[in-house]
Amino acid sequence: MLNSDFGKPQDDVAVYEYTDIPMTVSLSTYVYKFKPWNNDTRYLYPPEKMQKEIDDLNLLMKSMVPWTSTLFMSTISCTLMFLGFCGLITFFHFKKDVDTSFIFACIFLGSFIHYFISLVFRYLITKSVIMSVESRIRELNEKYDADKIYFKLINLSEFGFKYLKFHWGQNNTIHYALRVVYKYCVII
After folding, report:
1. Predicted confidence (pLDDT) per residue in 159-177, tens digit
2. CA 79 to CA 111: how far, in whole Å?
3. Within a domain: residue 8?
4. Domain assignment of residue 117, yes or no
5. Residues 6+ positions from 106 with CB-CB distance below 8 Å
6. Which residue numbers in the chain have pLDDT < 70?
7. What's the pTM value of the predicted model, to 2 decimals?
8. How far apart are CA 17 and CA 183, in angstroms?
9. What's the total number of domains in the chain?
10. What is the DSSP letter of 4?
């Protein structure tokens, strides 16, 4: 027996799904890149257009990294600190050559200062890249509001810092993810 008090809803009920697109970050070489959109045919939105938006975000991030970033790579600092430390120990402790050990001590101190300058530079570059991505995400949310597609940048840092990221040996670490919420299907 049908209950006549229950009518058909005014709007169709839509089921939303989301996908996370990880951003690989190489802090030693200042490379920020989203992984490609997975091509699944069940989405109501064409995957080619979504991949174009991901590619545009990758180009935006690449353009936000200045050419001077090659001067502030922490791998250069770490290598010079290691060489300065080895030379300091070798010439001061074993050969008792104070003049040469002073040169290696200056190399160690200069590379130590360079390392901290590269940490500050890494923070500033990451901040400018993430702020530009967030402004582009706001534009994408306005652009795709009619299609009911929403974008959000998720911070995956274990320490909770938004722009200050640490690099513990891995070259490509996932610090962020782009969450895309889209209409999966419509229930009639």
Report:
1. 666 766 666 555 667 778 8
2. 8
3. no
4. yes
5. 84
6. 1-12, 39-45, 158-161, 163-172, 184-188
7. 0.75
8. 6
9. 1
10. T
